[in-house]
Amino acid sequence: MKKDQSKYAVIVAAAIAIGIVFVAYGLAFGIFTTSIPVIDGIICENEMFSYHIHAHLDIFVNEYPSPVPAAIGIVVQNHCFYWLHTHKSDGIIHIEPPTVKQFTLGQFFDVWRSSNTLSPPSQEEPIIYVNGQLASTKLKDTPLRSHDEIVLVYGSPPFLQYPNSINSLKVYDKF
Ligand SMILES: [Zn+2]
Question: How far, in Å, from the CA of 8 to the mean position of ligand 1?
């Protein structure tokens, strides 16, 4: 009986010790203080400005423009910016990873769905134009390149000339 009790005490002491180590490790590595998820490989952190390019997105849904909302990928309470984000509802996608990386429209949409209360228009695949050319890619493999003008068409197409370039993006560039 006594032997069983001491065995029990050892198990409890070991469990407490493991608990203390786990909490200390968690505090040291920010496990309990960070609640900002990584979205499709995109991290939310302070704006870097070391690499900073822009693409422009126009979306049409059943003939009408559908705005790309402001503050996609910006988590105000944590003062962090996902590497792909918008500042205003001007359709400009800011692409700001700490080092040169290639991203896709699909990754931007994943950040949009996870970080903004206004959702993208639809789960269906749109028709995609890049710089005035019909693209053969889907959202997930359409690259986001500097100064790309991207048009997404959901449902009936609009009766107008799609935007095919945007020079105003140059004023945003840091280099
Ligand atoms: Zn920017």
Answer: 60
**Distances in whole angstroms, Cα of residue 110 to Cα of each of 96, 120, 131, 139:** 16, 9, 23, 10
What confidence tens digit (pLDDT) does each residue in 128-146 have? Answer: 999 999 999 999 999 999 9
Query: Using DSSP, how many helices (H) and how many strands (E) does the chain show?
Result: 2, 12
Taking the centre of ligand 1 as the mean of its atom positions, its distance from the CA of residue 85, in whole angstroms, is 8
In angstroms, the Cα distances linking 135 to 38, 62, 73 are 28, 19, 25
Cα(84) to ligand 1 centroid in Å equals: 9
pTM over 0.90: no
Distance 52 CA to ligand 1 centre (A): 6
Whether 15 has a pLDDT exceeding 70, the answer reads no
Pairwise CA distance, residues 154 & 156, whole Å: 7
